[in-house]
Predict the structure.
Amino acid sequence: MDKGQFFAPNEAAMESFAKALYKGLDKQGVVFLQGDLGLGKTTLSRGVVRAAGHVGNVKSPTYTLVEPYEDVETPVYHFDLYRLSDPEELEYFGIRDYFSNDSLCLIEWPDKGAGFLPIPDLEITLTLSGQGRLLSYQALSKRGELAVSFLKKPENVSL
């Protein structure tokens, strides 16, 4: 599948990438966000939620597992599975109800939900690179391939 990288030297660049990501996915799909603590998964998610049109605070769903944003053009669901102790808990949580053709799901720590999550359209891994972050992304579906093609065009990710 198609791959790409983006270097974000600061939060503004991360927000710019997030806006392009939202457009490139055509405002829907499933995105896995990988990376150690503090590397910017929530910052990236916040940028996507704002690109969707949410005005106001965007918080990490570390304790609630999901933070829904339904006051936007297309519903965005931000998951943080870091504190999940057993992937089966997701079944009782009703996680499958969130994955529809008219929503965008951003999932931090997807490995914690193995076996209960759909195959993502795109997987993004954030790593530390100097003073910034390197975002490595890989398509895992046709929608993901279209997003990668969009994200690779420099004019679509303005700094």
The first helix runs from residue 11 to 24. The two ends are 27 Å apart (CA to CA). The domain at 3-121+138-150 is CATH 3.40.50.300 (Rossmann fold).
